[in-house]
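Memo to structure team: turn this sequence into structure tokens by end of day. - J.P.
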Amino acid sequence: MGDPGFLPGFIGVGIDIAIRQILHHVNIALRCNKELASLKDLVISIQPILTQIQQYRLELNLKKRISTFQRNNKTAAISGWLRKLDGALQQTSDVVHQCTLSRRGFISRYQTSRKITRLISDIHKHLQLLPLIQLAQTEELLLAQCMQRQSLQDSSSATISSQVPTTGFFIDESLVVGQEEAYGKLEKSVMDTEKGCFFRIGVVGKGGSGKTLLLKRVFNSQRVRNLFADHLLLWLTVSRTPSFTTLRNQLCSQITMHTKADLPVTPSQDELQIWLNDRLKSKRFALFLDDVWEEGAKLLEELALLQLKELHSMSKIIVSSRNRRALLEMGVGESSIMAMKDLTEDKSWQLFANHAFLYNNGCLPANIDEKMAKLLCARCGGLPLAIKVVGRAMAGIVHSNEWESAVRRLPNVHSQDYQSSHYDHLRLSYDALGTCFDVNLQLCFLYLGAFLEDQIVLYTREVVHFWIGEGLLARKKLPDQLGYDDPFEIVKIYVNILADRCLIEPTMRDADGRVVCFRMHDVVRDLAIQIAEVEENCYFRAGRGLTALIENECSGRTRISLTDNKLSSLPRSMRVQEIRSLLMARNTNFREFPGKMIRRMTSLKILDLSDTSIQSLPESVGCLKQLVCLRLVALPIKKLPTSLTNLPCLEILDLDRSSITELPAGFHKLTSLRYLNLGSCEFLQSLPHKISALTSLQYLNIHRCSSLCTKGVASINNLRSLTKLKILIMQNNGETIHEGTLGNMTEMESMELTLTRMASLPGDMINMSKLTELRLQCPHLVKMDFKFCEFQNLSHLALVGCEMLEELPDLHELKNLKQLEISKCFNIRKLPKGFAEIEAFPKLEIFSLAWLDKLEELPLVKAETMPSLQILSIVECKALKTLPENYLKLKNLRKIRIYGCLIIFQNLEKIKRENIQLEVVTMSTTDTKEFIKKYLQVYEKIEGWLYGEYWSNELFVLLRNLIH
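Reply from structure team:
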């Protein structure tokens, strides 16, 4: 098996370098020969071809990450054509370089002219084959796409395991190398019950040495979890500039979920400390404190842990830090500190091979020089993070010149200067983003440094908005059928590439294995900030606890991130003409944005004032003619300035949870608007009269706008002209939706409808043939008349709160359905017989039934039914007494969840033999809510239901309504 992306990838990089060299030297050497001017024009004309080649390589590299492809004639033809073009350009580069170095008179004008004329002729002949090569590329990509789909279908059981687990952290143990001794020692210390006294354990090591990974593995340890099953197992990520209030709240939240103890009503921080102290004194616990930098004693005091003698005798605190002194300040004894060691030569090579030769099952390919590869590995100095990142940067690189170049770039690592030297290793991967993929991807990576340290980022919210605002997700000129003209699709590619390069760490994946949430290692984040500030003139100071800015530091910057600080104002005289992005979210003391300053922000594209205390915006906002993205989430602002309607470039307006009461007159003039979020705007009384003029709109959220339409001023039926809508989240507040409103939205892909006082669904919904995700909450719905089987692209379906519905429609014919949730349909007594047919639900992976009070039985399935089902969840179905034994025979079923039910199992031993994971919890509805919250708390910043991404996490499919 071979990978067609390897050779084009290498040659494409060579072409990129060659063109850069040629254009650089031609500008110097034009006086050498008139023919050089013609050569310059030709090389410039090749640049669009290079762009196509890079796009082709990006697409094929994406496919190769998911499956391998058999090398075929088309692949060989493309590779051969690229090789010849690369050779011609290299000769051209040599000639131009020679002209640059030579003085007038030293090179014969005649000889040089002949060489250049011959090269121009050769390149022109070569380009005559371009149409055939482009056709071959298109066919190859389509073949790759088909094979990708088949591969994802075949590997569905593997991708589901990549979900964030209900117990602990997701870790791919197959890629963990060299921690056997440290893991055993730390697990033993945590398990030790012989000492009979409370004690602390420390883990110290360099950034990127694997401290967090070690702590997570021990936290996941089944032995540890069994020991603390009836006690408290707690985790806090502290970070460099911790918020003690946030950490205290998180700790209280975790303890509440474990113990079901009630917190005081609207407690002060002092009351929380007392509450914490009382709970921790009487309960054995293991508290993991990851990434402590300094002020260790202060941290213990703030978490009510300072008076250690009063704590349970067998409790443990496990702390990781780069600073040994911080551990000692926290009372960790010298003998209880474990030092992370660099990997040995053999372990380093094993880890490097796992990542560098990922597409060859970790084995060294025959065409790569082992000596050169091991030399590059040795340059990483045994640091796991550097080894992983450098290894992934070299994955797919087969040409020896590129391996030699990488070795030359990386310095030998010296322990006394490991930080600066390892930045060189990480920089290698950053540079490869531009040469192997897209220069814009480099800027996307740098932008992640604007977020808070250790923040779990949901990329479909802030990240997408910021990348679009910067123009980094511009429309790609790829075949239309590949679907990459949509920036929301491009961002998914970019995020997965960053994850593949180990530059971000996924924390949640969807059913297809794509990253939904991620975080950034603080060492990698430091690299992004360093490059962004030095090379892009950015100023990233998120979460530093700043109360004021030094004007000279922030003036003249291009991008400024000051999120999560304590700022009340900006320096009024700071130079702001160059600012493209200004992020001020979660500065709760920030109350006013000076109008004079806004007038000077002539280059501003992104403005984020979310969760600040600004109550009004000045009319000078209308001067921001370049503004693309405006985020005013949770702002106590009631009206927007009328001048806002004069922003010709505005594409994203996020007013989620704001106090807005009305939108300004002339709102329909925002014809570039693609994303409008009015979710949970409880005081919004009407939609714009001419909202139908927003013909570019692709995303609209008008859910939980409780005051909307109460005066009959606007009608939801005015949405009928929004034919480009792809994502709609809507609540009708009692208004009848007429035929022709939803039926015109033929581009719709994801929709959530909450329809009150409607006994039936609009029949023309059936026209939404591209719909992939549908969520219906219709309390007065009596019957579903239209055929769901027409939604053949539907992959995720939820019927929630259809309280009067007595019969479900035939859903079993949905051939592509992967996740099905039926919840709070209180009058459903039985499921359709079609659910048990052999052909039913061929791709269904997750099936959730919750709060079906009258459901008495499940249909008797056959062993061949639901062949892809992996997770069956049943919550609070009180009338259901048994689970038919046939469900245990479903061939791919891996997990059964039973919460708050009285189901009697007769075959527990059989479940054990067939490796079905069983979770049974019998409790009341209220207790179930508390039980579930501990799984949701890590995503506490996720709000609403956007893009259907939350379907990807099995917990949200089952339980997302509990907390509302």
